[in-house]
Amino acid sequence: QVQLVESGGGLVQSGGSLRLSCAASGRTLEYNAVGWFRQAPGKERERVSCMHSGDGSAYYADSVKGRFTISGENAKNTVFLQMNSLKPEDTGIYYCAAGFASRGNCPYEYDFWGQGTQVTVSS
Hints:
By secondary structure, the protein is an all-beta fold. It is 0% helix and 52% strand.
């Protein structure tokens, strides 16, 4: 099993920044890619970004390109999501998830999920 714990959420004004962390523990060899998702009230869950640990390739949703950056510290089994120029529409619960993917791709399915961290952007 793999345990994922998100942190770093909070309340920020529009235009501000936050850095989310996703710390993994347990059988970390059971995944090679980590993704960030978010879910706003009344909306479906949306994939925001993912990163493959093997080649460092990253994916970003169009809505966050140029504003969000995903990165990782393999030695600490931690993945970060740096969020800049935040907008009210970025508000939601942010989840990290882990799974297996071929190089250069995001997982089709994610096997492990964290509990989420709330991000609220005020206008």
